[in-house]
Design brief:
Bound molecules: glutamic acid
Oligomer: single chain
Strand order of the largest sheet: 1-2-3
CATH superfamily of the largest domain: HUPs
Number of domains: 3
Protein backbone atom coordinates (compact mmCIF):
# COMPACT_ATOMS: atom_id res chain seq x y z
CA UNK A 1 0.00 0.00 0.00
CA UNK A 2 2.67 2.46 1.02
CA UNK A 3 4.47 2.51 -2.34
CA UNK A 4 1.27 3.10 -4.33
CA UNK A 5 0.94 6.73 -5.40
CA UNK A 6 -1.39 8.61 -3.09
CA UNK A 7 -4.92 9.26 -4.35
CA UNK A 8 -7.20 11.42 -2.24
CA UNK A 9 -10.69 12.70 -2.95
CA UNK A 10 -13.54 14.73 -1.64
CA UNK A 11 -17.02 13.35 -2.03
CA UNK A 12 -19.52 16.11 -1.33
CA UNK A 13 -23.26 15.63 -1.65
CA UNK A 14 -24.72 18.34 -3.91
CA UNK A 15 -27.65 19.33 -1.75
CA UNK A 16 -27.10 23.03 -1.06
CA UNK A 17 -24.33 25.43 -0.18
CA UNK A 18 -20.71 24.32 0.02
CA UNK A 19 -19.92 24.35 3.72
CA UNK A 20 -16.62 25.73 4.95
CA UNK A 21 -15.93 22.30 6.49
CA UNK A 22 -16.10 20.77 3.01
CA UNK A 23 -13.65 23.42 1.84
CA UNK A 24 -11.26 22.53 4.65
CA UNK A 25 -11.62 18.81 3.84
CA UNK A 26 -10.90 19.61 0.19
CA UNK A 27 -7.85 21.64 1.18
CA UNK A 28 -6.38 18.89 3.38
CA UNK A 29 -6.94 16.29 0.65
CA UNK A 30 -5.40 18.62 -1.92
CA UNK A 31 -2.42 19.43 0.32
CA UNK A 32 -1.77 15.79 1.07
CA UNK A 33 -1.99 14.81 -2.60
CA UNK A 34 0.36 17.65 -3.57
CA UNK A 35 2.74 16.89 -0.71
CA UNK A 36 3.09 13.27 -1.79
CA UNK A 37 3.05 13.91 -5.54
CA UNK A 38 -0.28 12.08 -5.77
CA UNK A 39 -3.69 12.91 -7.16
CA UNK A 40 -6.71 14.74 -5.76
CA UNK A 41 -10.09 13.62 -7.11
CA UNK A 42 -13.68 14.78 -6.85
CA UNK A 43 -16.74 12.58 -6.60
CA UNK A 44 -20.20 14.08 -6.52
CA UNK A 45 -22.36 11.92 -4.24
CA UNK A 46 -25.66 12.54 -5.94
CA UNK A 47 -27.45 9.28 -5.15
CA UNK A 48 -30.11 11.10 -3.15
CA UNK A 49 -32.05 12.07 -6.27
CA UNK A 50 -34.56 14.13 -4.37
CA UNK A 51 -32.07 16.38 -2.60
CA UNK A 52 -29.33 16.56 -5.26
CA UNK A 53 -29.59 19.45 -7.71
CA UNK A 54 -27.63 20.61 -10.74
CA UNK A 55 -27.28 24.04 -9.11
CA UNK A 56 -25.69 22.49 -6.03
CA UNK A 57 -23.24 20.60 -8.25
CA UNK A 58 -22.30 23.92 -9.83
CA UNK A 59 -21.90 25.44 -6.37
CA UNK A 60 -19.29 22.76 -5.60
CA UNK A 61 -17.44 23.32 -8.89
CA UNK A 62 -17.50 27.08 -8.34
CA UNK A 63 -16.41 26.79 -4.72
CA UNK A 64 -13.46 24.56 -5.57
CA UNK A 65 -12.48 26.78 -8.51
CA UNK A 66 -12.64 29.88 -6.32
CA UNK A 67 -10.55 28.20 -3.66
CA UNK A 68 -8.02 27.10 -6.28
CA UNK A 69 -8.53 23.44 -5.35
CA UNK A 70 -9.60 21.90 -8.59
CA UNK A 71 -9.49 18.13 -8.96
CA UNK A 72 -6.84 16.47 -11.09
CA UNK A 73 -9.37 14.45 -13.12
CA UNK A 74 -12.91 14.94 -14.36
CA UNK A 75 -15.38 14.50 -11.52
CA UNK A 76 -17.08 11.18 -10.92
CA UNK A 77 -20.86 11.21 -10.44
CA UNK A 78 -21.93 8.51 -8.03
CA UNK A 79 -25.50 8.08 -9.30
CA UNK A 80 -24.19 7.18 -12.76
CA UNK A 81 -22.34 4.21 -11.31
CA UNK A 82 -25.26 2.25 -9.87
CA UNK A 83 -24.53 -0.73 -12.13
CA UNK A 84 -20.99 -0.97 -10.78
CA UNK A 85 -22.34 -0.81 -7.25
CA UNK A 86 -24.75 -3.64 -8.04
CA UNK A 87 -21.87 -5.64 -9.51
CA UNK A 88 -19.94 -5.28 -6.27
CA UNK A 89 -22.95 -6.66 -4.41
CA UNK A 90 -23.11 -9.63 -6.81
CA UNK A 91 -19.46 -10.25 -6.06
CA UNK A 92 -20.18 -10.25 -2.33
CA UNK A 93 -23.09 -12.64 -2.76
CA UNK A 94 -20.89 -15.04 -4.67
CA UNK A 95 -18.16 -14.72 -2.05
CA UNK A 96 -20.64 -15.45 0.71
CA UNK A 97 -20.02 -12.10 2.42
CA UNK A 98 -23.56 -10.90 1.69
CA UNK A 99 -26.94 -12.54 1.69
CA UNK A 100 -30.47 -11.96 0.48
CA UNK A 101 -32.80 -11.09 3.27
CA UNK A 102 -36.48 -11.81 2.62
CA UNK A 103 -37.87 -10.53 5.89
CA UNK A 104 -41.24 -8.87 5.38
CA UNK A 105 -41.74 -5.38 6.85
CA UNK A 106 -43.75 -6.95 9.70
CA UNK A 107 -41.05 -9.51 10.45
CA UNK A 108 -38.42 -6.80 10.44
CA UNK A 109 -40.48 -4.73 12.86
CA UNK A 110 -40.86 -7.72 15.19
CA UNK A 111 -37.11 -8.42 15.03
CA UNK A 112 -36.39 -4.77 15.78
CA UNK A 113 -38.57 -4.89 18.86
CA UNK A 114 -36.97 -8.12 20.05
CA UNK A 115 -33.46 -6.80 19.40
CA UNK A 116 -34.19 -3.64 21.36
CA UNK A 117 -35.56 -5.66 24.28
CA UNK A 118 -32.50 -7.91 24.30
CA UNK A 119 -30.06 -5.03 23.87
CA UNK A 120 -28.56 -6.34 20.65
CA UNK A 121 -28.47 -5.31 16.99
CA UNK A 122 -30.96 -6.59 14.41
CA UNK A 123 -30.09 -9.96 12.89
CA UNK A 124 -31.98 -11.53 10.02
CA UNK A 125 -32.89 -15.22 10.12
CA UNK A 126 -31.89 -15.32 6.43
CA UNK A 127 -28.27 -14.77 7.38
CA UNK A 128 -27.65 -18.47 7.57
CA UNK A 129 -30.41 -19.74 5.30
CA UNK A 130 -29.63 -21.80 2.25
CA UNK A 131 -30.18 -19.97 -1.07
CA UNK A 132 -32.40 -22.92 -2.01
CA UNK A 133 -34.95 -21.79 0.54
CA UNK A 134 -35.39 -18.46 -1.25
CA UNK A 135 -39.06 -17.45 -1.45
CA UNK A 136 -40.41 -15.52 -4.40
CA UNK A 137 -40.77 -12.13 -2.80
CA UNK A 138 -38.85 -8.87 -2.50
CA UNK A 139 -35.53 -8.93 -0.70
CA UNK A 140 -32.72 -6.66 0.35
CA UNK A 141 -29.08 -7.68 0.22
CA UNK A 142 -27.28 -7.40 3.53
CA UNK A 143 -23.65 -7.58 4.52
CA UNK A 144 -22.87 -10.75 6.42
CA UNK A 145 -20.93 -8.90 9.07
CA UNK A 146 -18.79 -10.75 11.60
CA UNK A 147 -20.47 -11.02 15.00
CA UNK A 148 -17.34 -11.75 17.01
CA UNK A 149 -14.17 -9.77 17.43
CA UNK A 150 -13.40 -6.16 16.68
CA UNK A 151 -13.06 -3.87 13.73
CA UNK A 152 -10.19 -1.48 14.24
CA UNK A 153 -9.76 1.81 12.46
CA UNK A 154 -6.16 2.99 12.63
CA UNK A 155 -7.07 6.57 12.04
CA UNK A 156 -4.31 9.01 11.12
CA UNK A 157 -5.97 11.74 13.18
CA UNK A 158 -8.03 9.95 15.82
CA UNK A 159 -5.59 7.15 16.51
CA UNK A 160 -6.76 3.59 17.08
CA UNK A 161 -10.55 3.40 17.21
CA UNK A 162 -12.06 0.05 18.16
CA UNK A 163 -15.58 -1.08 17.23
CA UNK A 164 -17.05 -4.27 18.68
CA UNK A 165 -18.50 -6.32 15.85
CA UNK A 166 -21.43 -7.40 17.96
CA UNK A 167 -22.60 -3.77 17.85
CA UNK A 168 -22.50 -3.56 14.05
CA UNK A 169 -25.57 -4.91 12.31
CA UNK A 170 -25.75 -6.53 8.89
CA UNK A 171 -26.20 -3.35 7.01
CA UNK A 172 -28.22 -3.22 3.83
CA UNK A 173 -26.15 -3.05 0.63
CA UNK A 174 -28.94 -3.18 -1.94
CA UNK A 175 -32.51 -2.06 -1.29
CA UNK A 176 -35.61 -3.97 -2.44
CA UNK A 177 -35.76 -1.78 -5.54
CA UNK A 178 -32.19 -2.82 -6.40
CA UNK A 179 -30.62 0.56 -5.60
CA UNK A 180 -27.30 0.56 -3.76
CA UNK A 181 -26.97 2.07 -0.30
CA UNK A 182 -24.60 4.81 0.71
CA UNK A 183 -21.79 2.86 2.38
CA UNK A 184 -21.65 0.28 -0.41
CA UNK A 185 -21.49 2.97 -3.08
CA UNK A 186 -18.69 4.80 -1.26
CA UNK A 187 -16.59 1.64 -0.97
CA UNK A 188 -17.13 0.54 -4.58
CA UNK A 189 -16.32 4.02 -5.88
CA UNK A 190 -13.31 4.64 -3.67
CA UNK A 191 -11.89 1.27 -4.67
CA UNK A 192 -12.43 1.81 -8.37
CA UNK A 193 -11.08 5.34 -8.22
CA UNK A 194 -7.95 3.95 -6.61
CA UNK A 195 -8.36 6.09 -3.49
CA UNK A 196 -5.56 5.32 -1.04
CA UNK A 197 -6.42 7.86 1.68
CA UNK A 198 -9.91 8.77 2.82
CA UNK A 199 -9.63 12.15 4.54
CA UNK A 200 -13.05 13.49 5.63
CA UNK A 201 -15.09 14.85 8.50
CA UNK A 202 -15.24 12.81 11.69
CA UNK A 203 -19.02 12.55 11.37
CA UNK A 204 -18.07 9.63 9.08
CA UNK A 205 -15.97 7.73 11.62
CA UNK A 206 -18.70 5.16 12.26
CA UNK A 207 -19.06 4.67 8.53
CA UNK A 208 -15.36 3.83 8.39
CA UNK A 209 -16.02 0.72 10.50
CA UNK A 210 -18.91 -0.33 8.30
CA UNK A 211 -17.00 0.40 5.14
CA UNK A 212 -14.04 -1.61 6.42
CA UNK A 213 -16.33 -4.64 6.72
CA UNK A 214 -17.52 -4.11 3.14
CA UNK A 215 -13.90 -3.89 1.96
CA UNK A 216 -13.19 -7.14 3.74
CA UNK A 217 -16.31 -8.73 2.28
CA UNK A 218 -15.03 -7.86 -1.18
CA UNK A 219 -11.50 -9.03 -0.44
CA UNK A 220 -10.21 -5.49 -0.98
CA UNK A 221 -7.71 -3.58 1.17
CA UNK A 222 -9.32 -0.64 2.98
CA UNK A 223 -7.78 2.80 2.45
CA UNK A 224 -5.88 4.70 5.11
CA UNK A 225 -8.40 6.66 7.15
CA UNK A 226 -8.10 10.18 8.48
CA UNK A 227 -11.13 11.77 10.14
CA UNK A 228 -10.99 15.51 10.68
CA UNK A 229 -12.61 17.23 13.64
CA UNK A 230 -15.48 19.57 12.88
CA UNK A 231 -15.11 23.30 12.63
CA UNK A 232 -16.79 25.08 15.51
CA UNK A 233 -17.92 28.67 15.88
CA UNK A 234 -15.95 31.10 18.09
CA UNK A 235 -18.12 30.02 21.06
CA UNK A 236 -17.16 26.36 20.68
CA UNK A 237 -20.49 25.14 19.35
CA UNK A 238 -21.00 23.57 15.95
CA UNK A 239 -20.60 26.18 13.21
CA UNK A 240 -23.98 27.51 12.15
CA UNK A 241 -25.67 30.49 10.57
CA UNK A 242 -25.58 32.56 13.70
CA UNK A 243 -21.76 32.57 13.65
CA UNK A 244 -21.88 34.88 10.65
CA UNK A 245 -21.06 32.62 7.74
CA UNK A 246 -20.67 28.98 6.95
CA UNK A 247 -20.78 28.68 3.16
CA UNK A 248 -17.77 29.20 0.94
CA UNK A 249 -19.77 31.62 -1.22
CA UNK A 250 -20.54 33.73 1.85
CA UNK A 251 -16.86 34.15 2.63
CA UNK A 252 -16.26 35.13 -1.00
CA UNK A 253 -19.12 37.65 -0.85
CA UNK A 254 -17.79 39.08 2.39
CA UNK A 255 -14.57 40.03 0.63
CA UNK A 256 -12.13 37.30 1.64
CA UNK A 257 -9.44 36.31 -0.84
CA UNK A 258 -9.07 32.63 -1.72
CA UNK A 259 -5.40 32.57 -0.74
CA UNK A 260 -6.32 33.98 2.68
CA UNK A 261 -8.98 31.30 3.02
CA UNK A 262 -6.49 28.58 2.11
CA UNK A 263 -3.98 29.86 4.63
CA UNK A 264 -6.69 30.24 7.26
CA UNK A 265 -8.36 26.87 6.66
CA UNK A 266 -4.99 25.12 6.71
CA UNK A 267 -4.59 26.48 10.24
CA UNK A 268 -7.92 25.00 11.32
CA UNK A 269 -6.67 21.74 12.69
CA UNK A 270 -3.18 21.75 11.26
CA UNK A 271 -0.17 23.99 11.60
CA UNK A 272 3.55 24.28 11.21
CA UNK A 273 5.06 25.47 14.47
CA UNK A 274 4.10 29.07 15.14
CA UNK A 275 3.87 30.00 11.47
CA UNK A 276 0.73 32.08 10.92
CA UNK A 277 1.29 33.15 7.34
CA UNK A 278 2.58 30.74 4.75
CA UNK A 279 2.38 30.23 1.02
CA UNK A 280 0.73 27.32 -0.75
CA UNK A 281 4.19 26.00 -1.61
CA UNK A 282 5.20 26.03 2.05
CA UNK A 283 1.98 24.33 3.12
CA UNK A 284 2.41 21.66 0.45
CA UNK A 285 5.98 21.11 1.58
CA UNK A 286 5.08 20.82 5.26
CA UNK A 287 1.68 19.18 5.27
CA UNK A 288 1.29 15.73 6.71
CA UNK A 289 -2.07 14.26 7.60
CA UNK A 290 -0.52 12.79 10.75
CA UNK A 291 0.00 16.29 12.13
CA UNK A 292 -3.70 17.18 12.09
CA UNK A 293 -4.99 17.62 15.62
CA UNK A 294 -7.99 15.70 16.87
CA UNK A 295 -9.75 18.51 18.74
CA UNK A 296 -12.36 20.67 17.00
CA UNK A 297 -11.00 23.88 15.54
CA UNK A 298 -12.71 27.20 16.24
CA UNK A 299 -13.39 29.83 13.65
CA UNK A 300 -11.59 33.02 14.66
CA UNK A 301 -12.70 36.08 12.70
CA UNK A 302 -9.87 38.29 13.97
CA UNK A 303 -7.28 35.84 12.67
CA UNK A 304 -9.05 35.47 9.36
CA UNK A 305 -9.24 39.26 9.00
CA UNK A 306 -5.58 39.61 9.85
CA UNK A 307 -4.62 37.07 7.18
CA UNK A 308 -6.94 38.61 4.62
CA UNK A 309 -5.43 42.03 5.22
CA UNK A 310 -2.00 40.51 4.71
CA UNK A 311 -2.97 39.00 1.38
CA UNK A 312 -4.76 42.17 0.26
CA UNK A 313 -1.51 44.04 0.89
CA UNK A 314 0.42 41.44 -1.13
CA UNK A 315 -1.95 41.09 -4.06
CA UNK A 316 -1.43 42.48 -7.55
CA UNK A 317 -3.28 45.85 -7.66
CA UNK A 318 -4.69 45.08 -11.11
CA UNK A 319 -6.27 41.89 -9.78
CA UNK A 320 -7.71 43.75 -6.79
CA UNK A 321 -9.01 46.42 -9.18
CA UNK A 322 -11.03 43.70 -10.92
CA UNK A 323 -12.45 42.43 -7.63
CA UNK A 324 -13.26 45.92 -6.41
CA UNK A 325 -14.95 46.71 -9.73
CA UNK A 326 -17.27 43.74 -9.26
CA UNK A 327 -18.13 44.99 -5.77
CA UNK A 328 -18.91 48.51 -7.03
CA UNK A 329 -21.02 47.03 -9.84
CA UNK A 330 -22.98 44.92 -7.35
CA UNK A 331 -23.68 48.15 -5.45
CA UNK A 332 -24.74 49.98 -8.62
CA UNK A 333 -21.97 52.48 -8.10
CA UNK A 334 -21.54 54.41 -11.37
CA UNK A 335 -18.21 53.51 -12.98
CA UNK A 336 -16.53 55.43 -15.77
CA UNK A 337 -14.50 53.93 -18.60
CA UNK A 338 -11.11 54.24 -17.01
CA UNK A 339 -12.14 52.92 -13.57
CA UNK A 340 -9.71 50.00 -13.80
CA UNK A 341 -6.77 52.32 -14.32
CA UNK A 342 -7.96 54.58 -11.51
CA UNK A 343 -8.42 51.63 -9.15
CA UNK A 344 -5.06 50.09 -9.98
CA UNK A 345 -3.48 53.45 -9.25
CA UNK A 346 -5.34 54.14 -6.00
CA UNK A 347 -5.37 50.66 -4.41
CA UNK A 348 -1.74 50.66 -3.26
CA UNK A 349 -2.50 53.84 -1.27
CA UNK A 350 -5.61 52.63 0.50
CA UNK A 351 -5.19 48.91 1.05
CA UNK A 352 -3.19 48.85 4.28
CA UNK A 353 -6.24 49.26 6.48
CA UNK A 354 -8.58 47.00 4.50
CA UNK A 355 -9.58 43.73 6.15
CA UNK A 356 -11.76 42.68 3.23
CA UNK A 357 -12.16 43.63 -0.41
CA UNK A 358 -15.48 45.24 0.59
CA UNK A 359 -13.55 47.62 2.83
CA UNK A 360 -11.04 48.09 0.03
CA UNK A 361 -13.89 49.04 -2.30
CA UNK A 362 -15.16 51.59 0.26
CA UNK A 363 -11.70 53.12 0.41
CA UNK A 364 -11.59 53.67 -3.36
CA UNK A 365 -14.85 55.58 -3.66
CA UNK A 366 -13.20 59.00 -3.30
CA UNK A 367 -11.12 58.38 -6.43
CA UNK A 368 -13.99 57.06 -8.54
CA UNK A 369 -16.32 59.99 -7.96
CA UNK A 370 -16.73 62.18 -10.99
CA UNK A 371 -16.60 65.91 -10.81
CA UNK A 372 -18.53 67.77 -9.54
CA UNK A 373 -17.79 65.78 -6.41
CA UNK A 374 -20.72 64.92 -4.17
CA UNK A 375 -19.52 66.95 -1.20
CA UNK A 376 -20.60 66.07 2.29
CA UNK A 377 -21.79 69.10 4.26
CA UNK A 378 -18.74 69.00 6.48
CA UNK A 379 -16.36 68.74 3.52
CA UNK A 380 -18.09 71.59 1.72
CA UNK A 381 -17.73 73.77 4.80
CA UNK A 382 -14.03 72.98 5.13
CA UNK A 383 -13.27 73.38 1.44
CA UNK A 384 -15.19 76.64 1.02
CA UNK A 385 -13.81 78.41 4.07
CA UNK A 386 -12.54 81.76 2.67
CA UNK A 387 -9.29 81.75 4.64
CA UNK A 388 -8.55 78.23 3.41
CA UNK A 389 -9.46 79.07 -0.19
CA UNK A 390 -7.04 81.92 -0.15
CA UNK A 391 -4.27 79.52 0.79
CA UNK A 392 -5.49 76.85 -1.57
CA UNK A 393 -5.06 79.22 -4.51
CA UNK A 394 -1.37 79.60 -3.64
CA UNK A 395 -0.89 75.91 -2.83
CA UNK A 396 -2.41 74.97 -6.18
CA UNK A 397 0.32 76.97 -7.91
CA UNK A 398 3.03 75.16 -5.93
CA UNK A 399 1.51 71.79 -6.71
CA UNK A 400 1.11 72.60 -10.40
CA UNK A 401 4.79 73.48 -10.46
CA UNK A 402 5.91 70.35 -8.57
CA UNK A 403 8.90 68.83 -10.34
CA UNK A 404 7.48 65.31 -10.00
CA UNK A 405 4.20 63.71 -8.94
CA UNK A 406 5.16 61.21 -6.29
CA UNK A 407 4.75 60.95 -2.53
CA UNK A 408 8.16 62.27 -1.35
CA UNK A 409 8.10 65.21 -3.77
CA UNK A 410 4.55 66.22 -2.91
CA UNK A 411 5.14 65.82 0.82
CA UNK A 412 8.06 68.20 0.33
CA UNK A 413 5.91 70.69 -1.58
CA UNK A 414 3.21 70.63 1.10
CA UNK A 415 5.71 71.01 3.91
CA UNK A 416 7.55 73.87 2.24
CA UNK A 417 4.24 75.57 1.54
CA UNK A 418 3.12 75.31 5.17
CA UNK A 419 6.44 76.71 6.33
CA UNK A 420 6.26 79.61 3.93
CA UNK A 421 2.72 80.40 5.04
CA UNK A 422 3.83 80.16 8.64
CA UNK A 423 1.13 77.63 9.59
CA UNK A 424 1.17 73.96 10.57
CA UNK A 425 0.14 71.36 8.00
CA UNK A 426 -2.84 70.77 10.26
CA UNK A 427 -4.24 74.10 9.11
CA UNK A 428 -4.19 73.06 5.49
CA UNK A 429 -4.66 69.30 5.64
CA UNK A 430 -8.37 68.92 6.42
CA UNK A 431 -9.46 71.47 3.80
CA UNK A 432 -7.15 70.05 1.18
CA UNK A 433 -8.37 66.55 1.82
CA UNK A 434 -11.98 67.70 1.68
CA UNK A 435 -11.30 69.44 -1.63
CA UNK A 436 -9.71 66.29 -3.05
CA UNK A 437 -12.23 63.74 -1.79
CA UNK A 438 -15.49 65.60 -1.24
CA UNK A 439 -15.47 64.13 2.25
CA UNK A 440 -15.22 60.44 1.30
CA UNK A 441 -12.50 58.55 3.19
CA UNK A 442 -9.18 59.20 1.47
CA UNK A 443 -5.51 58.52 2.13
CA UNK A 444 -3.06 61.05 3.51
CA UNK A 445 -2.53 64.16 1.47
CA UNK A 446 0.38 63.15 -0.72
CA UNK A 447 -1.19 59.71 -1.09
CA UNK A 448 -4.49 61.25 -2.17
CA UNK A 449 -2.73 63.53 -4.65
CA UNK A 450 -0.63 60.75 -6.15
CA UNK A 451 -3.41 58.23 -6.31
CA UNK A 452 -5.67 60.72 -8.11
CA UNK A 453 -2.91 61.80 -10.48
CA UNK A 454 -1.86 65.34 -11.27
CA UNK A 455 -4.61 66.33 -13.71
CA UNK A 456 -7.48 65.05 -11.60
CA UNK A 457 -6.00 66.49 -8.40
CA UNK A 458 -5.63 69.97 -9.90
CA UNK A 459 -9.08 69.76 -11.45
CA UNK A 460 -10.57 68.91 -8.05
CA UNK A 461 -8.71 71.81 -6.43
CA UNK A 462 -10.06 74.14 -9.15
CA UNK A 463 -13.52 72.87 -8.43
CA UNK A 464 -13.06 73.64 -4.73
CA UNK A 465 -11.69 77.09 -5.57
CA UNK A 466 -14.86 77.77 -7.54
CA UNK A 467 -16.90 76.94 -4.41
CA UNK A 468 -15.73 80.22 -3.00
CA UNK A 469 -17.35 81.97 -5.99
N1 LIG B 1 -20.90 12.53 0.86
C1 LIG B 1 -20.36 12.64 2.16
C2 LIG B 1 -20.62 13.99 2.72
O1 LIG B 1 -20.91 14.91 1.95
C3 LIG B 1 -18.88 12.38 2.23
C4 LIG B 1 -18.57 10.94 2.19
C5 LIG B 1 -17.10 10.62 2.28
O2 LIG B 1 -16.24 11.53 2.23
O3 LIG B 1 -16.80 9.44 2.35
O4 LIG B 1 -20.55 14.19 3.91
Amino acid sequence: MSDKPVVTRIAPSPTGAMHIGTARTALFNWLYARHTGGKFLLRIEDTDRERSTAEAVQVIFDGLAWLGLEADETPVFQAARADRHARAVEEMLSRGSAYRDYMTPDELEAERTAARAEGRVVRSPWRNASPNDAPDRPFVVRLKAPVLGETVIDDQVKGRVVFHNKDLDDLILLRTDGTPTYNLAVVADDHEMGVTHVIRGDDHLNNAARQTLIYEGLGWTPPIWAHLPLIHGPDGTKLSKRHGAQAVSEFADMGYLPEAMRNYLAKLGWGHGDDEIFSDEQAVGWFDIKDVVGAPARLDWAKLNHLNNHYIREADPARLAGLVTAIHRSRDFPLHDDHLAVLTQVIPFVRDGAKTTLELADATVFALHRRPLPFTDKARELASNPEFLDRLRRLREDLAAAPAWNVPTLEGVNRAFAEREGVGLGKIGPGLRAALSGGAPAPDLAGALVSLGKDESLARLDEALSLGG
